[in-house]
Specification:
The complex is a heterodimer. Chain A is α+β, with helices and mostly antiparallel strands. Chain A contains 25 helices and 21 strands. In chain A, the strands form 6 sheets. Chain A has a 4-stranded antiparallel β-sheet. A 4-stranded antiparallel β-sheet of chain A has the order 2-7-4-5, covered by helices on one side. A 4-stranded mixed β-sheet of chain A has the order 9-15-14-13. Chain B has one domain (about 1-215): Nucleotidyltransferase, domain 5, CATH 3.30.420. Chain B is about 45% helix and about 15% strand. The chains are: A alpha+beta, B alpha/beta.
């Protein structure tokens, strides 16, 4: 029948219906309806009757919005052809958003009973909605929480919504590479600017001179003012695409310890953005905190500034930053704090007898820090050439690391419970010893070795001679090749802790004790995801450490992650967000942040999403069990 | 029977029913030709609407054996004489069709023609006729277009030769190559669906208003 065929042809192109068998399509189409909504028509109304059907947009587009605090309309999503809406309200019996046609829109309606039947009987159908709705939910969850109580000033959001190009100064002032320093300085003074872009003969930007260069390289060194600017310019030029958001510029500046970024548009020089521009946009920004950290010359000063980090997190939460952005920025700020401590330590103890690299691992290594941060760090130094050199290195790094530990303690970094710190002599060693550690753990995977691998293998360089860390990383990735027994043990650990979902899709909570009726987000959900992703990262020997970055990479190369990677990433983001908000509320009310939440306090939508997260973890664990353990003697 | 149908109609609907709540059955017929004296019905298609909602599962489609087969119509509707010979006679499907339409406002593109043929058969076989109110989408189209353009003395009515598919195309309705009576009814339903919000916007709120501007001529 041509009428039904037309609908079926359409559905064959639309996920998740495209995954259904043709006969299933033929059986659902007669139960469907077709509606037309003229542009502007309200299809579903926030607080109104819940949706009675899943609507699939055949043509046109709709906008999904919620009411803000002052009754304003906050648009949270726009959906177009082939996308659906109305599922959650249909399942929950509550309409929490307003859906309005923003074009003339035609929808196919799949009635509630049919939808429920499909969700119950068709795994692909269910999975699809799990995936696409977790991502859509993320934004909504943030909005919901923000409305709950945290008031915000418009300006505070600006760094996340303003493209760099909007605040960049245009028509940057340039000088040629062979311009004398004095002439360049005069130009800066005349134009009252703090930097000049240096261009070559063909006007291609090659570097920058800032007032800092004039101070540090000219005045301080008594350099001849007739030398060309090429001799003092900073290069390579750090650039940022004008379409990027301001917070990304902020992260770039913190990372490189610079105050100027060249803004490019369509690959061409457009202008310049400075730390000052960003600070104007933002009363107290991550940049200004990082800047303050850098300005401190004493541990006392640093301890004082470090207190501002918690406030910074609150700010980021209010700015609706995603969990991954928040943890990254926290890590950048923490990194600069640790670097400053190390610089102060070097000043105090004198230059190190051998090149060294200060590495961090655990959550710090993955850049996934939140409020409560333990010290997880170590020191790799170059192998000493003589016994006396070895003795001297041991003495120096012992005192040095003890000072670092105490300093970090004062700045709010708690001691590591397992004593995985450079102050523990086991974790400050020459490169060859570190290599031996790693080889031993991989070749003889005792329970202790596995535990150490889990923490240490997420290491990254933070300060010093990064070549040392790079060599160790290479050694690790090479040693891993073909080490099935080690991977099997990692796999066992990975499937050991199951997500807290019971047989009837109810949450498994603590039965007694301090956290009765609560569940541990970190232990039960976050760690299992991290472990899954680490296992696959070691299996494929990729160097990345942050979980989200690992997933992005693995999605390209690992067959299992191709399938579940995106969902795992959403699940991870969701649980991390939940934890951050939970901890922030605790901090605000003067309590110690922990990882326990009572699932009863979540909204229905949050519960459902949390359950979905549990299911994707469980599913992946099952794949791992099948792959690694079937037919093997455990 | 006639009184019974009228009774049901009056009982279920009053003229004050809002047009986006009424029950409609959109119909189309394929004919051997347009002369009621010698041509006849080849197939009947119908699809139900609940307000502006098209119910994709509530359809009616029957190919019937016509009293006379005009081979010249074959290229249009694609039903060969052979096919229709194996189909039931129209008398056999009429009661089913009448009950499908029961209590609904009938809608069709130039529905007067379809009703002339159907009612002739109903009279001949059962001594009755469809009494449902009926709406001609072509009349509504002309009415809307007149208002939209702001007709003046130089306004030209849409030509009678303008087909359903021309109009549907102009409203962005996708039209498949292959069509039969049901598919044409479905296209008509989509057109009517587009008209409804426009009508409401122009003050056509109740069935009585709709009938005033869209009641089919000649039955």
């Amino acid at each position: 029948m041509p009428v039904h065929e037309e609908v079926i042809e359409f559905l064959k192109e639309v996920p998740p219906f495209q995954f259904l068998e043709e006969e299933d399509l033929y059986s659902i189409v007669p139960g469907m309806n077709m509606e037309f909504y003229p542009k502007g028509a309200v299809i579903l109304q926030e607080g109104g009757p819940p949706s009675d059907a899943l609507r699939i947009i055949k043509k046109g587009a709709v906008q999904v919005s919620i009411k803000g605090e002052k009754g304003e309309e906050l648009i949270i999503d726009v959906r177009g052809e082939g996308e659906t809406f109305g599922l959650w309200s249909l399942l929950e019996g509550e309409q929490k958003t307003t859906v309005r046609a923003i074009e003339d829109t035609i929808c196919y309606l799949l009635p509630k009973e049919r939808v429920k039947h499909l969700l119950d009987t068709n795994a692909i159908f269910t999975e699809y909605f799990l995936r696409s709705h977790i991502s859509k939910y993320l934004d909504k969850a943030l909005k919901e929480r923000i409305q709950k109580g945290l008031s915000q000033r418009e300006v505070e959001r600006a760094i996340f919504t303003t493209p760099v190009i909007n605040i960049a100064s245009t028509e940057p002032v340039t000088v040629k590479v062979d311009t004398p320093i004095q002439e360049a300085a005069k130009k800066m003074a005349e134009k009252r600017i703090s930097s000049l872009i240096v261009v070559d003969e063909e006007d291609v930007p090659v570097g920058i001179i800032t007032d800092r260069d004039l101070r540090e390289k000219v005045v301080a060194l008594g350099r001849n003012l007739n030398e060309p600017v090429r001799n003092i310019m900073s290069y390579p030029l750090k650039k940022i695409d004008g379409r990027r958001y301001c917070y990304e510029a902020i992260m770039e500046m913190i990372r490189n310890n610079i105050h100027h970024l060249v803004v490019v548009k369509d690959g061409k020089l457009y202008g310049m953005v400075t730390n000052h521009d960003l600070m104007l946009l933002q009363g107290s920004s991550p940049v200004s905190v990082a800047q303050e950290i850098r300005n401190q010359d004493s541990i006392d000063g640093l301890a004082e500034v470090s207190k501002k980090i918690t406030g910074l997190i609150g700010l980021l939460i209010k700015e609706e930053a995603k969990a991954r952005t928040i943890t990254r920025i926290i890590s950048e700020v923490n990194d600069s704090l640790i670097r400053r401590v190390l610089e102060i330590a070097e000043k105090k103890f004198g230059p190190p007898p051998l090149p060294y690299c200060f590495i961090v691992y655990g959550s710090e290594g993955r850049k996934e820090q939140t409020f409560k941060t333990d010290q997880d760090n170590g020191i790799i130094y170059r192998d000493p050439g003589t016994p006396s050199e070895a003795t001297e290195a041991e003495r120096y790094f012992s005192e040095f690391s003890e000072f670092v530990k105490e300093s970090l303690l004062r700045c709010g970094f708690a001691s590591c419970q397992g004593n995985y710190m450079a102050s523990n002599e086991k974790w400050r060693r020459p490169l060859s010893v570190w290599k031996r550690y790693f080889s031993e753990w991989i070749n003889t995977p005792t329970p202790e070795a596995i535990l150490q691998s889990v923490i240490l293998f997420d290491f990254r360089a933070l300060y010093g001679d990064t070549d040392l860390a790079r060599e160790l990383k290479e050694h690790l990735l090479n040693t891993l090749k073909g080490k099935d027994i080690f991977l099997l043990h990692m796999a066992k650990l990975t499937v050991n802790v199951k997500p807290p979902l019971g047989f009837f899709r109810t949450f498994v909570v603590e039965k007694s004790g301090e956290h009765k009726n609560e569940l541990n987000l970190k232990f039960r959900l976050i760690a299992p995801i991290i472990n899954i992703v680490r296992l696959y990262s070691l299996e494929t020997a990729i160097p990345e450490t942050p979980t989200i970055e690992r997933i992005e990479r693995l999605k390209q190369i690992h067959p299992v992650m191709k399938e579940v990677g995106e969902e795992l990433a959403y699940a991870f983001e969701f649980v991390m967000t939940l934890r951050l908000h939970h901890q922030y509320e605790q901090v605000l009310s003067g309590r110690e942040p922990d990882n326990y939440i009572n699932p009863d306090t979540l909204t229905n939508l949050e519960k459902k999403t949390l359950k979905d997260a549990c299911q994707i973890i469980r599913k992946t664990q099952e794949i791992i069990e099948q792959h690694y353990m079937l037919g093997r003697v455990m | 029977m006639l009184d019974l149908i009228r009774y049901f109609f009056l009982k279920r609907y009053t003229l004050s029913t809002p047009i986006d709540r009424a029950r409609y059955v959109v119909i189309d017929t394929e004919l051997t030709g347009l002369d009621p004296r010698k041509d006849s019905v080849v197939s009947i298609g119908a699809i139900e609407m609940e307000g502006s909602k098209i119910l994709l599962g509530r359809t009616f489609y029957r190919v019937v054996a016509p009293a006379c087969v005009d081979v010249s119509a074959v290229p249009i509707h694609g039903i060969t004489p052979q096919e229709t010979m194996e189909c039931p006679k129209i008398e056999a499907v009429l009661p089913e069709f009448v009950s499908f339409c029961e209590g609904a406002v009938l809608v069709g593109h130039r529905i007067g023609i379809d009703l002339t043929f159907i009612n002739r058969e109903l009279k001949e076989n059962y001594g009755t006729a469809l009494t449902n109110p009926s709406i001609d989408t072509f009349r509504i189209y002309k009415w809307l277009k007149r208002l939209e353009i702001g007709a003046d003395a130089f306004y030209e009515e849409p030509k009678e030769s303008e087909t359903l598919f021309d109009i549907a195309g102009a409203f962005g309705i996708t039209v498949n190559r292959v069509h039969d009576a049901l598919y044409d009814a479905y296209i008509t339903a989509q057109l009517f669906q587009r008209f409804l919000p426009k009508l409401i916007e122009r003050g056509v709120r109740e069935l009585r208003d709709l009938l005033r501007i869209g009641q089919s001529e000649g039955r």
